[in-house]
Predict the 3D structure of the following.
Amino acid sequence: MNVRRSAAVLAAVAVVGAATPAAADPSPSPSQAFPSALYGGKDPKFDGVWRQSLALLAQKTVGVKPAAKSVEWLVRQQCADGSFAPYRADPTAACDAKTMVDTNQTAAAVQALTALGGHGAVTGKAVAWLKSVQNEDGGWGYAPGGASDTNSTSVVIGALTAAGEKPEQVEKGGKSPYDALLKLALGCDGDDAGAFAFQPDKKGELAANADATAAGVLGALGQGMVVKPGEKSEATGATKGEACEDEKTPEQAAANGAAYLTQALAEDGHLTSALPGADPQPDYGNTADAVVALAARGDTGQAEKSLSWLEKNASAWAGQNGPAAYAQLIFAAHATGTNPRDFGGTDLVKQLNATGPAPQTAEKTRAAEEKSDSDSGPFGVWWYVGVCLVAGVGIGFLFSGRRNRQQP
């Protein structure tokens, strides 16, 4: 009996064993820290819906059909008003004022569920909620009512686009999301020309932020997390000074932001994070996001160089950070036409799938392999299962006889 057949036998026996009465319900309880349907093994308190959405969206992007229970878990996280919180341990309990819902988790869920299809009622309610918490300047903050920021506004634009809305027509106080983004874009003077800020500081001044710039470029282009490579631009190698123009349009803001990213990536091929008190470190996630943003504009020269850097260096980072990190790399590979199943020698799809329940496609493949094994040779898998059943019945009679003999 070969290794594959041995595994199939063990799996089949496990099924038989599971059919007998159990002492407890094996389904996860509402208070369980790590639901079996959830991708990733870390505490989902702050990012459960976000990482689940990215994982499912990445699987869909590469033609993998996610496990049904993982999709259902995401759907059940929605509150009655359409919003999503990062994680609700008990989705049967109604959301209340203490439930910390936010725009980012909600927008990510919309992008994932829209891509998967068949969840129009869920995404419709979510989009209606996002519209209801739009700020007067046309943008969104992370929490409802919070000051607009580039990242939140951009991820909501991606959700609106995915859901078939026209972001420029989604207005509050006569302002659209693009009006909010243009207010957060730096001008063309100074070293950080063309970048986006996350938010104005306390003095109302803007400071360049590479993470916000990558998000801002996608938002200004009306794109979500998954993009097809844009038409290659001849201006890919242009310097920041040559590309930046103060014309206040979303298209120009995207071009200015892309030029800033190109300049920031040019020296080392990656962005850098500098936390207070720590030495500067490569920023893998924001580099992947920058690749997607540049590819969306057709600025493929620097995008491909930075993707090559990620192929050589990002594997350990993704393994440490889990499903959302694998998803970011898959999005970057997809945007540049790179095979995510051979990403610097790493199969990103396989690694992502391994962080949660087996996808439906994998389940079908496994079933086909088991059937093939059962058909080969005079003794198939179910012959062994039959032996186990007979043995199980014998043991059952044995214990039954023992109980009968012990009765007075």
